[in-house]
Design goal:
With 149 residues, the chain is mostly beta strands. It has 2 helices and 9 strands; from the N terminus they run αββαβββββββ. The longest helix is centred in the N-terminal third of the chain and has 16 residues. The chain is globular. The chain starts with 5 loop residues before the first helix and ends with a strand. About 13% of the residues have low confidence.
Length: 149
């Protein structure tokens, strides 16, 4: 083993000190995530919690049905926030998808004398919001808003 002379030792110490005093090499920065603007496709449907107010109320095929004490066999219904009640059956609301300001798609549990089936119903209002179109079973229905509804 060889000993370093005094002057050489001092130079080595300065060299080591200089190495320690240097700033560390910059670490490569984590590149910022590339942000690109993504345009989402238009959402044709928006989920809402209950049947919108515009659809609620009493509806029937004609004014006589609106004022009848008992069902005359014509279509009449009452739409609330979470259910639709017909003369002898009802729909319990599962979900509502708003298709537009005058149209919603409902998923309901339809109770027909204890037989419950999950169905979809699309309700569409006329521009003046006084006529409602929808399917009841396979039959298209059109009803008018009752004066009290």
């Amino acid at each position: 083993m060889r000993l370093i002379s005094g002057g050489a030792a001092v130079l080595c110490m300065f060299a080591l000190a200089a190495c320690d005093a240097r700033e560390p090499a910059p670490k490569p920065e984590a590149s910022a995530p590339l942000v690109t603007e993504m345009i989402a496709p238009p959402r044709p449907e928006a989920v809402v919690i209950s049947i919108p107010l515009a659809f609620r109320g009493a509806w029937a095929t004609d004014l006589a049905e609106c004022t009848a004490d008992e069902s005359t066999g014509k279509m009449s219904l009452t739409i609330g926030g979470r259910a639709i009640t017909y003369s002898e059956t009802s729909d319990a609301l599962i979900s509502v998808n708003e298709i537009g300001p005058e149209s919603v798609r409902l998923t309901v549990d339809h109770d027909n004398d204890g037989e419950v089936r999950r169905l979809e119903r699309t309700l569409t209002l006329s521009n003046d919001r006084q006529t409602l179109s929808f399917n009841y079973g396979d039959e298209p229905q059109v009803v008018i808003r009752c004066p009290q509804g």
